[in-house]
Specification:
With about 210 residues, the chain is of the alpha/beta class. The protein contains five helices and eight strands. The longest helix has 13 residues.
């Protein structure tokens, strides 16, 4: 008879996943675009003091992406997706992100996807949401899984009640990915005939530090 032994860390992870999957989504966090008197643009999760010389614009940051359509899904799958929605935070050119997306697709998990860009606003928003700048990030309910570890992702999806094999109907269409940071609306100008000038955000010395 063959006995399969699971590492203690993985066993504890399964128990933790089953006990703590309780919230629906992570809350959105504000990101502020701050334009100083010298024209320098910075991004922060904390606005400067009111009445200062800097101009402040709130940048819209979402937490769930385009929500998948759950109508018409099997009951088991619909219940899991309603209680513990899944969101993938990914970036273009990120191989682990592609592998994680493929894992979700093969398993038939309906998920939302947020695309993380390379701007300072994206870096700040990702750090506010996850406490890190590592991609991919998967959220299952309120649980955050940083980086791709297939066994860990599988354990949390199992604990949330997602079927081990795809049960998506042939008619299901996954929602399009949406940007983590929505582009800020251009402010109105007094002279509508003046040509628009492109704004070049200031870059940090080392550039955004998003890793994957």
């Amino acid at each position: 008879m063959t006995t399969t032994r699971f590492p203690l860390a993985r066993s504890l992870g399964l128990v933790a996943a089953a006990l703590t999957l309780a919230s629906l989504t992570l809350p959105a966090h504000a990101v502020y675009k701050i334009v100083g008197p010298d024209g320098k643009v910075t991004y922060s999760d904390t606005p400067p003091p009111a009445g200062g010389p800097a101009k402040v614009h709130a940048v819209a940051v979402g937490s769930g992406g385009g929500a998948p359509n759950l109508s018409g899904l099997p009951v088991e799958l619909r219940q899991a997706a309603s209680k513990y929605p899944v969101t993938l935070y990914a970036a273009a050119g990120c191989r682990p992100c592609d592998a994680g997306r493929q894992l979700l697709q093969q398993r038939g998990v309906p998920f939302a996807e947020k695309t993380v860009g390379t701007t300072s606003a994206d870096t700040t928003a990702l750090q506010n949401l996850t406490g890190a700048t590592t991609l991919p990030v998967l959220t299952v309910g309120q649980q955050q899984l940083k980086g791709l570890t297939t066994s860990e992702w599988t354990s949390y999806l199992d604990a949330a009640g997602y079927p081990s094999e795809s049960k998506l109907p042939p008619s299901y269409r996954a929602p399009a990915s949406t940007p983590l940071v929505q582009p800020a609306a251009a402010p109105a100008t007094a002279d509508a005939t003046a040509p628009a000038t492109a704004e070049t955000p200031a870059r940090a010395a080392s550039g955004p530090n998003i890793r994957f």
